[in-house]
TrEMBL record:
<feature type="domain" description="NAD-dependent epimerase/dehydratase">
    <location>
        <begin position="15"/>
        <end position="230"/>
    </location>
</feature>
<dbReference type="InterPro" id="IPR001509">
    <property type="entry name" value="Epimerase_deHydtase"/>
</dbReference>
<protein>
    <submittedName>
        <fullName>Nucleoside-diphosphate-sugar epimerase</fullName>
    </submittedName>
</protein>
<dbReference type="InterPro" id="IPR036291">
    <property type="entry name" value="NAD(P)-bd_dom_sf"/>
</dbReference>
<comment type="similarity">
    <text>Belongs to the NAD(P)-dependent epimerase/dehydratase family.</text>
</comment>
<comment type="pathway">
    <text>Bacterial outer membrane biogenesis; LPS O-antigen biosynthesis.</text>
</comment>
<dbReference type="Pfam" id="PF01370">
    <property type="entry name" value="Epimerase"/>
</dbReference>
């Protein structure tokens, strides 16, 4: 057994990628609150305007050697890799950013970690890696790049002894979500009374609050701490409820005592729409703590 990250030390050092994004931003704030020294690894052009001010900003120029230098200088106990390029239905213009952000950057990061002796990584996957299947079956090219990164990560676990835990997420939601995803669009339509064009709405959705991603990462780091070097595993995180999109809208209407104007069926289901989210093995020792009613009510009350 090798201690890869000591969570009992409030002086622990965590390097977070994607800290200007939704999940990474919540993680940076949560771990800074808990007394960790947080490093935020940003690309050259990223805006740090919404980043927690306690985070140390490390900007990388895109080269592998620069990343090595930054990881060596910050010397984290563990890395949380939340950077991604997401696209639901890709076009030709998305191929390069998907590969650059979801494969190249992550591989450079793992290489820097291995060379600098950083031995613990929490990574994120997506339930879309399992389109109607417990086996790997990507719903989208984005999901395929997430799987490809896990396959590359297996090399760094096997050959370099980096311990890696991948948390596969469903749709996430919560405050300070600037991604313009489903929940934000529904709440905006509700507030503005503007009609929102949606699919027929029979697809089932699982929603995980971003605070529960934070609690999942804490459990994952703890698990890595007790794991043998080179551990490589993936688990699901899942919100407490899975419901259809129509049921979700009805729920928001009930909680917010106001209609959400939706034009059902104004848009087709997308190609390979996930109608039934994958329910893989949950991260041991973790369960979601934020009920859907509580998470939605807080967003309705504080838009
Ligand atoms: N949220 C969900 O519903 C969901 C569902 C399934 C899986 N996941 C996974 O959860 C993780 C977090 O997702 P999220 O929703 O928080 O993402 P997000 O809000 O879209 O944020 C993406 C972050 O990645 C950064 N980034 C992108 N390309 C980069 C690169 N080449 N180098 C460095 N940074 C780069 C962005 O920085 P810039 O400021 O430079 O743009 C941004 O901070 C990802 O691994 C995602 O695949 C999320």
């Amino acid at each position: 057994m090798e201690d890869v990250v000591d969570l009992s030390r409030s002086s622990g050092r965590l390097l977070i990628t994607g800290a200007t994004g939704f999940v990474g931003g919540r993680l940076a704030r949560g771990f800074a609150d808990a007394g960790f020294s947080v490093g935020a690894l940003l690309r050259a052009g990223s805006s740090a305007d919404c980043l927690d001010p306690r985070a140390t900003i490390l900007r990388h120029d895109g080269s592998t050697s620069d990343l090595h230098g930054l990881v060596r200088a910050f010397a984290p106990d563990a890395v949380i890799h939340a950077a991604t390029h997401f696209v639901g239905v890709h076009g030709p213009e998305h191929v390069a950013p998907l590969i650059e952000s979801n494969l190249l950057f992550g591989t450079q990061l793992l290489d820097a970690m291995a060379r600098c002796g950083v031995r613990a990584l929490v990574n994120f996957g997506t339930i879309w890696q399992h389109f109607e299947s417990d086996d790997y079956k990507p719903a989208t090219l984005y999901a395929a790049t997430k799987q490809a990164f896990e396959d590359i990560a297996a090399y760094y676990a096997e050959a370099e002894g980096v311990s890696i835990l991948t948390l596969k997420l469903p749709d996430t939601y919560g405050p300070e979500d600037r991604r313009g995803k489903l929940i934000s669009a529904l709440l905006q339509a509700r507030t503005e009374g503007r009609q929102l064009a949606l699919s027929p709405g029979e697809q089932r959705i699982n929603l995980l609050h971003v605070d529960d991603v934070l609690s999942g990462v804490r459990v994952a780091l703890d698990r890595l701490r007790g794991a043998p070097a080179g551990t490589h595993a993936s688990f699901a995180l899942r919100g407490p409820e899975t419901l259809t999109l129509r049921e979700l809208v009805t729920r928001i209407e009930r909680l917010g005592a106001r209609p959400v104007p939706v034009l059902w069926g104004a848009r087709p289901y997308r190609a390979r729409e996930v109608m039934r989210p994958w329910e893989g093995p949950l991260l041991p020792g973790w369960s979601a703590g934020v009920s859907l009613d509580r998470g939605l009510s807080e967003l309705i009350e504080t838009p």
